[in-house]
Write a structure and sequence with these properties.
The chain has one domain: Rossmann fold (3-Layer(aba) Sandwich), CATH 3.40.50. The chain contains 3 helices and 4 strands, in the order ααβαβββ.
Length: about 70
């Protein structure tokens, strides 16, 4: 399982931390559950997230490329 898939399924923000000041590819975003899509949209709008297990709000400088084969 790649980092992006692991992050999407487990809520882990490791991919965001390692992608800082770079680009993160999210493959098959159409397969994400609606709850995760909501969280992803919130991140895309604010560029802020909570790292798993931390009450501290963090900012991220990362570009996101998203792809899917689903008919959206």
């Amino acid at each position: 399982m790649d980092m992006a898939s692991k992050a999407a399924k487990g809520g882990d923000s490791t991919a965001l931390i390692q992608g800082e000041s770079g680009t993160l590819l999210l493959n098959e975003v159409g397969e994400l559950p609606p709850e995760m899509q909501t969280k992803l949209l919130r991140f895309l709008e604010t560029k802020e997230y909570y790292q798993l297990g931390s009450p501290e709000l963090r900012a991220s400088d990362v570009r996101i490329f998203a792809s899917t084969n689903a008919d959206l």
